[in-house]
Amino acid sequence: MALLLRTVARQGLCSSRSQFGVLYRHAVPMGTTAKEEMNKFWAKNTRLKRPLSPHISIYQWSVPMAMSISHRGTGIGLSSGISAFALAALVLPESYPYYLDLIHSMTFGPHFLAFSKFALAFPVVYHTFNGIRHLAWDLGKGFKIPQVYRSGYTVLALTVLTSIGLAAM
Amino acid sequence: MAALVRISSVCNRGVSPLLFRSSFLIRPLALQKKDRDCPYLISANIHATPSNYAGSGSKAASLHWTGERILSVALLGLAPIAYCYPGPAVDYSLAAALTLHGHWGLGQVVTDYVHGDFKIKMANAGLFLLSTVTFAGLCYFNYHDVGICKAVALLWSK
């Protein structure tokens, strides 16, 4: 359909403003950028103290939606963890093995250790597998809704299994 | 002629606006009744890249996107290498890749949720500071302490 319209436009059947390469006649470029428009929107609405309509509090959650924000959440969490670790390395006086032994002397039992490993591995593994899913999307693959759900469930299953496997190591 | 007729019939069903939905920010105005030859066309305000930009535009954003993906793949590849060949080379590569991946990722979070020119600038400055300290700390750990690979191995050994 678009191809047909493009062909027609090129043949000059509709006199379009060709400098913009658009298909309709009265294309008028706006004087402001999209960013300026967005800022104007926020500035006006905050100035008028308008309340924000409920959005995420009312919209029905879906698995892809939850997985997407979890990908972001695990990313932020992992990044914070790494930064905290780096900061600790700079600030704390003793070496890593010292603090590790300190933690081990406080251990509450073997199951606690296994669970801690699982809890540590889970966000890393989830973010990794879902990251691969994102990279597939970046290649243009797997956008059909059934595919989105299938790949999503696959990531979740792989995450649980791999985390358990890593915790057992 | 047939083509024109066909398009008119399609456009009268209101298909045109859908074609441009994803490309432009459109505010459709009233139908121009006086166009005899193109009765179906709607005037629209659009954000179009001016033609004088074409060719001289910056590819920075596009290259950044590509860089992010390449880094993600590189980090993915580093994981098995870190497991099989732990050592200083992998330690420092991991420090660099993790920090940069996190920096760029948090940068996207800032772009999504922080609004207003000053706040954006402040948030990005703070992020830059955090990433710098993170990288410094990881390098310090690699040099003066056991290193990232050994640290994970030790953590998992108990």
From TrEMBL, chain A:
Q: Pfam families attached here?
A: Sdh_cyt (PF01127)
- Give the record's membrane topology: Multi-pass membrane protein
CDD domains from the UniProt entry: SQR_TypeC_SdhC
Q: Which InterPro entries match?
A: SQR/QFR_C/D, Succ_DH_cyt_bsu_CS, Succ_DH_cytb556, SuccDH_FuR_B_TM-su
Q: Which GO terms describe its molecular function?
A: electron transfer activity; metal ion binding
| Gene3D superfamilies given in the database record | Fumarate reductase/succinate dehydrogenase, transmembrane subunit, Single helix bin
- Primary location group: membrane
Q: Which GO CC annotations does the UniProt entry carry?
A: membrane; mitochondrion
Keywords, alphabetical? Heme, Iron, Membrane, Metal-binding, Transmembrane, Transmembrane helix
> Where is this chain's protein located in or outside the cell?
Membrane
Copy the pathway line from the protein's UniProt record: Carbohydrate metabolism; tricarboxylic acid cycle
What's a GO biological-process term for it?
tricarboxylic acid cycle
Stated role: Membrane-anchoring subunit of succinate dehydrogenase (SDH) that is involved in complex II of the mitochondrial electron transport chain and is responsible for transferring electrons from succinate to ubiquinone (coenzyme Q). SDH also oxidizes malate to the non-canonical enol form of oxaloacetate, enol-oxaloacetate. Enol-oxaloacetate, which is a potent inhibitor of the succinate dehydrogenase activity, is further isomerized into keto-oxaloacetate.
Quaternary assembly: Component of complex II composed of four subunits: the flavoprotein (FP) SDHA, iron-sulfur protein (IP) SDHB, and a cytochrome b560 composed of SDHC and SDHD.
Q: What is this protein called?
A: Succinate dehydrogenase cytochrome b560 subunit, mitochondrial
Species of the source: Cirrhinus molitorella (mud carp)
TrEMBL record, chain B:
Pathway of action: Carbohydrate metabolism; tricarboxylic acid cycle
UniProt KW Transport keyword:
yes
Q: Which residues are recorded as binding a ubiquinone?
A: 113
Tell where it localizes.
Answer: Mitochondrion inner membrane
- List the Gene3D superfamilies: Fumarate reductase/succinate dehydrogenase, transmembrane subunit
Q: Summarize where heme b binds, as residue positions.
A: 101
The processes (GO biological process) annotated in the record are: mitochondrial electron transport, succinate to ubiquinone; tricarboxylic acid cycle
Q: According to its record, how does it sit in the membrane? A: Multi-pass membrane protein
Q: Which residues cross the membrane?
A: none
InterPro entries listed in its UniProt record: CybS (IPR007992), SQR/QFR_C/D (IPR034804)
Which keywords describe this protein according to UniProt?
Electron transport, Heme, Iron, Membrane, Metal-binding, Mitochondrion, Mitochondrion inner membrane, Transit peptide, Transmembrane, Transmembrane helix, Transport, Tricarboxylic acid cycle
GO CC annotation terms, alphabetical: mitochondrial inner membrane
GO terms for MF: heme binding; metal ion binding; ubiquinone binding
User: Organism's domain of life?
Assistant: Eukaryota
Subunit description? Component of complex II composed of four subunits: the flavoprotein (FP) SDHA, iron-sulfur protein (IP) SDHB, and a cytochrome b560 composed of SDHC and SDHD.
Matching entries from PANTHER family are given as: SUCCINATE DEHYDROGENASE (PTHR13337), SUCCINATE DEHYDROGENASE [UBIQUINONE] CYTOCHROME B SMALL SUBUNIT, MITOCHONDRIAL (PTHR13337:SF2)
Function (record text): Membrane-anchoring subunit of succinate dehydrogenase (SDH) that is involved in complex II of the mitochondrial electron transport chain and is responsible for transferring electrons from succinate to ubiquinone (coenzyme Q). SDH also oxidizes malate to the non-canonical enol form of oxaloacetate, enol-oxaloacetate. Enol-oxaloacetate, which is a potent inhibitor of the succinate dehydrogenase activity, is further isomerized into keto-oxaloacetate.
Family, per entry: Belongs to the CybS family.
Name of the protein this chain belongs to: Succinate dehydrogenase [ubiquinone] cytochrome b small subunit
Source species: Cirrhinus molitorella (mud carp)
What are the leading ranks of the lineage? Answer: Eukaryota, Metazoa, Chordata, Craniata, Vertebrata
